[in-house]
Amino acid sequence: MPVLQPIRFEAGNVAITLTAPDALTSLGQALVSNVAFPDDAFQNDAISLGTITAAASKEIKLDKVKFSAGGSAFAGLGVYRSSQRLFHDLKAEGLDEPMVQRLALPDLATKNICALRWGYQAHGSISGTVALGPTISFGASGKAEGLYAVLRVLDRKTKAVNALTDTINS
Prior knowledge:
Layout: E1 7-11, E2 14-19, H1 24-33, E3 46-62, E4 65-80, H2 83-92, E5 111-131, E6 135-155, H3 160-169
Antiparallel strand pairs: 1-2, 2-3, 3-4, 4-5, 5-6
């Protein structure tokens, strides 16, 4: 089965990576024909339908003052047959929330979980010294991050395009 390697674009301080699905052929056929997700497209109870990540950083130094800022963002879409695998992937993307493990999902023997995920991370800092008689050193930094997900539990017989459309429209 063909596998596409991630595609990476870089321009200055910005890098963008696009990752395609693993089971491209059978998944593509299911999407074109709008039939249920095929069993052979699932690897370790998941189909990664693609992710995009972008990151940038910049540092500026003016005399004895240094400013730095950076951040990253990602988005992904996947289909899961195991809540454990979904939680594993969310944790790998930065979710460290014990409450997620307590989510009551229905029996997944005949269901798929469609997950649309996105998030960001940003940071910045300033430091330096100023001579106003005595030398004064200063510095400050901060960061913010967020992770969001829309989960849809749908019957495994749901047509692939319909499942993805319903999830994105949610």
